[in-house]
Structures are given as structure tokens and as C-alpha cells.
Amino acid sequence: MTFSIHPEQLQQNLVQVLGEQVSEVALSLGEVSIKVPAANYLSVMQTLRDAPDCKFEQLMDLCGMDYSTFGEVGTDGPRFGVVVHLLSVSLNQRVRVMVLCPDDDLPLVDSVNHLWNSANWYEREAFDLYGIVFEGHQDLRRILTDYGFIGHPFRKDFPVSGHVEMRYDAERARVIYEPVSIEPREITPRIIREDKYGGLH
Fold it and tell me: I need a surface site. Which of 2, 22, 38, 130 has the fewest CB within 10 A?
């Protein structure tokens, strides 16, 4: 039976193994998170997979992030990032890795698909929804939106109703694209409470 080490010990192990390649190894709420510069991302991920004190054999999740509203809460920095969750089955430990894309106009980081093949669809999803490019990915194309889709719908500046809508036209016997015909409207929910609801008089 494998027992997990304490998060504090994992934090110390990662600081020792990764050294100056990372900008932060933080412990919060019993979880260890690593912040890594984009230039070191690939080598750090390789180390996390292969180093004896790490052995993170599984990539559990990878997602894009849009931090464009961080300025409103006093945080500066690049707009786009990638967050990865890794699991070591053999050592029963987990870690979160965060990397920021240096260029907001062309958000780009290295692909880790050749390290963990589970990254394939996750990286395609982040590319599709956020426009983050994963350099070295062998098949980087949209995975959730249509081939003719314009834009990246999880970016915070993407309109809620989108730009175009598609439908099947029976007369033309094909799918056609048209400008969005949804008229914006505000719906205010009506709240009905019974007498003495929740002990109120």
C-alpha cells in the first residue's frame, strides 16, 4: 500500500528538484502549486514526470485561463495562462502547475503532448476556446467549435451571444452561417416565498 507524503514535504522536494527553474512553489489549503516561466515550462514538466521524487505519471487535467480582469483586483501580468494538474500514482501525490503566456497577442507555450498523451485533447480544447497555441503539438485544431467558427468563446471579451449562428438550410441542402439574430433581453427572476418561510414572520 502506498502512503502519500505530507504536502510540506512535497513542497520541499519540489523546491530542491526544480530549483531556479520555477518562480514559486506554494502551499495553500493542503495543495502544492508551482508557477513556472514559459521558457522553462517544458523542462520542468519533463522533470516532474521523470525525477525519482516526483514521478508524476499522469496528466489529469489541463485548461486555459484568461486573466484579463485581474487588473481590476490589483494584479498585473500576462492575460493568458495554462494550468495543469498532475498525479503520481506510484508516490500518491498531486501538484498543480501554472504557466503564463508571455505574449497576449499570440499566447504560446510548449506542448506536453509527447510527455503525456492525455494532453492531446486538453491542449486542443485550450486552443479552441482561448486561442492558446501549443508549440510542438502534432494536430492542433479546433475540437469543440465548428470548423468555420470565428474567435475563441471562453475569452472574457467574447460576446455572450457570439457573432454568427449556423443552421441547416433544406433548400440549399447545406449548413449556412448568418449573423446572430438573438435580441438581448434582461430577465429578472420573480421570487415567491410562502408565509413564515424559513421562520420569517
Answer: 2
The C-alpha cell at 88 is 503520481
CB of 49 closer than 8 Å to CB of 115: yes
Rg (CA), the chain: 22
Strand partners, 64: 82
Domain boundaries defined on the chain: 7-144
* pLDDT in the model for residue 31: 94
pTM to 2 decimals?
0.80
Interatomic CA distance for residues 115 and 3, integer angstroms: 25
Domain 7-144 architecture: 2-Layer Sandwich (3.30)
- Indicate whether 52 pLDDT > 80: yes
Q: Cite the beta strand spans of the chain per DSSP E.
A: 24-28, 31-36, 58-66, 80-88, 93-100, 108-110, 133-135, 164-169, 174-179
In single-letter form, the type of residue at position 106 comes to: L
pLDDT bracket for residue 1 (50, 70, 90): very low
Q: What is the mean pLDDT of residues 82-103?
A: 96
Contact 137, 123 (CB under 8 A): yes
Element (H, E) at 9: helix 7-18
Evaluate the CA torsion angle 102, 107, 112, 114 in order and state its sign: negative
Q: Is the pLDDT of residue 34 over 90?
A: yes
